[in-house]
Task: inverse folding
């Protein structure tokens, strides 16, 4: 009897993974930790490249240390030589030298990328450590990162900084700014509305080309605004949730919808973790616990 041939490890087709390139949050509410938890909860495996280490407590940032740029390059090489990366998610860069290395990798790889612009922590701390002014950081995102983004996901303050306009405060300005973000070169743009003034609803506006004539469609994704003292990491969660959906073959609209649903559930259950009185993390695994 002929024994069946057992495939070697090199013969087995590897499942693709999400690669999160972002900063580390010591409280695990945002950054790399939020990305990994989100992808795991949504059924995707996530690898990580740490750009910076932050010392964060509830509602504050006590310190930021950017990784050596060469180590960021080595992390990217280690992951990509070991795993099949299907989608990249970008968060905090740490400094412009790191951002350039990441941009070079994205240009060379041609991988789809979800870019979540991070200029400051939610607590207000500056997250660029090399003495570069905020304007230089914003310019890099505008001129280098935006044109290679499969989807860029700024909140209203970040969008205003990228576009050089006041923050959106009406449905009309949300719609306009979402469309204008595409002029920066991004294939799609999700303007996150979690920091809006609407006390009842949280609406995110997705702008994307639709139709043979290049028309721009804007789709609103709306959910009830939840009253909770725990919302640390919402932006990271939404962006990495989109990456997880794209990895699994969802369309962009489906991926945004799935990420929004996951975020809403994790936010609603955040208080059940009971690990801190305020500024706490989301409960990504509420469905399983």
Result:
């Amino acid at each position: 009897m002929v024994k069946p041939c057992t495939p070697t490890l090199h013969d087995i087709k590897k499942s693709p993974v999400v690669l999160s390139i972002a900063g580390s949050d010591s409280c695990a509410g945002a950054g790399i930790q939020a990305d990994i938890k989100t992808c795991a909860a949504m059924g995707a495996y996530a690898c990580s490249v740490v750009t910076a280490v932050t010392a964060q407590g509830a509602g504050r940032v006590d310190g930021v240390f950017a990784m050596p740029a060469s180590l960021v390059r080595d992390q990217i090489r280690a992951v990509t030589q070991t795993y099949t990366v299907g989608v990249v998610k970008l968060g905090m860069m740490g400094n412009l030298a790191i951002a350039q290395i990441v941009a070079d990798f994205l240009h060379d790889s041609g991988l789809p990328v979800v870019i979540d612009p991070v200029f400051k922590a939610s607590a207000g701390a500056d997250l660029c450590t090399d003495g570069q002014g905020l304007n230089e950081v914003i310019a890099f995102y505008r001129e280098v990162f935006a044109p290679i983004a499969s989807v860029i996901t700024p909140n209203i303050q970040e969008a205003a900084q990228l576009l050089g306009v006041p923050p959106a405060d009406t449905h009309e300005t949300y719609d306009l700014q979402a469309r204008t973000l595409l002029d920066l070169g991004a294939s799609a743009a999700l303007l996150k509305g979690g920091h809006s003034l609407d006390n009842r609803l949280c609406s995110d506006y997705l702008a994307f080309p639709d139709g043979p004539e290049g028309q721009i469609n804007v789709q609103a994704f709306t959910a009830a605004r939840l009253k909770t003292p725990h919302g640390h990491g919402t932006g990271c969660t939404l962006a990495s949730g989109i990456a997880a959906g794209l990895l699994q073959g969802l369309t962009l609209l489906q991926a945004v919808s799935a990420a929004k649903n996951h975020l809403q559930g994790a936010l609603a259950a955040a208080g059940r973790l009971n690990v801190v009185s305020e500024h706490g993390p989301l409960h990504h695994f509420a469905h399983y616990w």
In short: Confidence is low (pLDDT under 50) at residues 1-5. The helical segments are 31-41, 69-82, 96-109, 134-145, 156-163, 171-182, 234-247, 252-268. The first strand starts at residue 16 and ends at 25.
